[in-house]
Write a structure and sequence with these properties.
Structural class: mainly alpha
Largest sheet: none
Helix content: 55-70%
Strand content: under 5%
Number of strands: 0
Order of helices and strands: HHHHH
Distance between the termini: 57 Å
Length: 104
């Protein structure tokens, strides 16, 4: 009788482990989608240097014009003071490079 319970116990453990694994899948993110990822680090450097070219390696050709325009607006707003710089940087970093890079 004990031998029939072993497969049931093993199956139960496997089901529990698979269930836990499925719960963890929702919390996994790609490194490049974070504010410490390579896209954002490149964008931060580009904002400090005032040069968009390094960011464009992450952007599809069809989105380059849009990203360049937002970058120029971001630079203009950054010049208005530290608070404006912080808001402009956040707008650019949260939106354009990462979303444009992930659109394809």
């Amino acid at each position: 009788m004990k031998k029939t319970w072993i497969p049931v116990k093993i199956a139960s453990v496997v089901i529990v482990l698979l269930g836990c694994g499925m719960l963890l899948v929702n919390t996994v993110r790609a490194h490049c989608d974070t504010l410490r990822g390579p896209v954002v680090l490149t964008a931060k450097a580009a904002l400090e240097e005032g040069e968009i070219t390094p960011v464009l390696k992450w952007v599809k050709k069809e989105h380059e014009v849009e990203v360049k325009a937002v970058f120029q607006k971001t630079l203009a707003v950054r010049a208005k003071g530290p608070d404006a710089k912080e808001v402009a940087d956040r707008y650019f970093l949260d939106g354009d490079p990462r979303s444009s890079a992930s659109r394809g």
